[in-house]
């Protein structure tokens, strides 16, 4: 008997409790809320699925008939914090675990996996996107390309969620260059490092406020950078002075 997909946030979060990845309860809630309020026939695109933690929440929340596309090459690069280059074997293992996790959560049939890098997958998704979740390669170049090239395909009024915002240096520089000063995205807020934007242009004083609200996140960004430097220098115990737990990479 196939597993039934989760029908509530609590069920979905329980379904991913053993799925490896980086997504806090608040972040899962934000994904759930934005996906569940989509209309019939919408399209969700996730860039960077890893082992399926966020994809399972998105696919469980989306109304019936939503196309959910998960783009991840599973080639063992840019897997997570400090894992820019690992091995192809690990990428293949991510792919197998991803498929098994989707199956176990009962959402395998709801997700179309495009096993390509996001920059090579633009032609694999037809039409506009209602909800775009970016959590792929966090280096500046690929992160900026994802925001710009995939972001322009989000419908007017649609949603962009970006993980590791104001936490990863590459993602934050990409945000400053695209969403902060670009004028076509309105900053809504964030759950830890998951920032939410609406595809709505800002003008005049509204634009200045929009820039200001994003620049106001920079002290939190600097804190995260200091925490990471301390952790890399094996001085994690000092992160307690910044209200951090010494063990967990900030996200
Ligand atoms: C931080 S993990 C994603 C975590 C996932 N969203 C979760 O909730 O568990 C980053 C993922 O991005 C993928 N990735 C790396 N480069 C990519 C690219 N150019 N396009 C799409 N995905 C990429 C990696 O294979 C990895 O699985």
Describe, in plain words, how this protein is organized in 3D.
The chain is built from eight helices and seven strands. By secondary structure, the chain is an alpha/beta fold. The protein has two domains: 9-216, Vaccinia Virus protein VP39 (Rossmann fold, 3-Layer(aba) Sandwich), CATH 3.40.50; 218-251. A hairpin with a 2-residue loop joins β6 (186-191) and β7. α2 runs parallel beside α3 (53-61). The model has no long low-confidence stretch (mean pLDDT 95). The protein binds S-adenosylmethionine. S-adenosylmethionine binds at residues 21-23, 47-51, 53-54, 71-74, 77-80, 94, 117-118, 135-137, 142.
Strand count: 7
Please give the domain count. Answer: 2
Number of helices: 8
List the quaternary state of the chains: single chain
Please state the average pLDDT score. Answer: 95
| Structural class by SSE content | alpha/beta
Order of helices and strands: HHEHEHEEHEHEEHH
For the terminal residues, how far apart are their CA atoms? 37 Å
